[in-house]
Fold this protein.
Amino acid sequence: TGETKKQRCRFEGCVKTFARPEHLKRHENTHSKERPFPCVVPCCRRRFSRNDNRKAHYETH
């Protein structure tokens, strides 16, 4: 059948599942305290775990 095996996040307490392994990996990185992507606006102190989230945030300035 055309069913896709869902992969579950390994972070304790998280119940999210993903069909694509790269989406699972991207999601699991959000549980990390690491935020390597700072907002590029000088007076803004926000940091992000994902560059696409930083770009979306930038549009709010």
In short: The chain has a mean pLDDT of 93. The first helix runs from residue 21 to 29.
